[in-house]
């Protein structure tokens, strides 16, 4: 079987790696930029199952965390994966009640979650400061990845296993024969034939799928006020400033691959869209840095860069995974960083004819 995977973000890269290593099929990966250069390489990249609201989805994400451990072990403790733990706190009474409830509900689900005191916070994060009266929680099994480096490593290993890697070329359309998708057309006019085409193109998926009259319910990132775009800043060197993930009121922070920090704050994304000006991005970067200096009082780093991350957001928040037409399989989701390698495992099973019951609630055509 000849399989064409469109997109080499974390989902497409993990699929290519698994398919190339575990089958005699011919695998081709198409990526218009470089592996991991899009959303996977610009996102905050938090690996977690921190929301207890939907137990089935929580179980999927918990299984995905285990798959990450297995994947990283296969690379021999790579620098791009760190199970460094996550610490968060609340200061208002409502926020404290919500956090306490979350920790309790996660604990009932068997998830590692605990309330800690300020002394334990100082042991975990010596340079971080939280208010003395904060309610603090710690999730020791959570972690983060450097998404671009992961995607590159996975695609490189897929190539070593025999996959054909086509970069710098965009898939502009799906080719069809009757009701069946038969491959893709590239922006240089070439046609790549396939027995199965897998659309893992993230935010770009609706445009590609529309060429075969297939729809995908994603939030439109170009709409004014869309929640899909966000801004993420990185700092200059800040070795040892933060050990793991820290989610403080008004700021999320974690180590960056080059020794700096990755910073994000949801309230600063209001009004950010794909046309956000450089001036706005600089303003957001300055505010993120100011918040980081309040969080880590001895921080002396500056802003190294501010990047826009446009997330593929399904309208109902859940993954969109499965066959859409004969010869066409779609794999698009928010939380792609957490879910990507595990989805690749389940999708490979389905491609081999063994339906994955874990994916049944997440089909693209659900009402």
Automatic annotation (TrEMBL):
Residue ranges constituting the FAD dependent oxidoreductase domain according to the UniProt record: 2-347
Name of the molecule in the record: FAD-binding oxidoreductase
MF term (GO), any: oxidoreductase activity
Pfam families named in the record: DAO
Record-linked InterPro entries: FAD-dep_OxRdtase (IPR006076), FAD/NAD-bd_sf (IPR036188)
Keyword Oxidoreductase: yes
Keywords for the protein's UniProt record, in alphabetical order: Oxidoreductase
GO cellular component terms listed in the entry, alphabetical order: cytoplasm
Gene3D superfamilies cross-referenced by the UniProt entry: D-Amino Acid Oxidase, subunit A, domain 2, FAD/NAD(P)-binding domain
Originating organism: Actinomadura livida
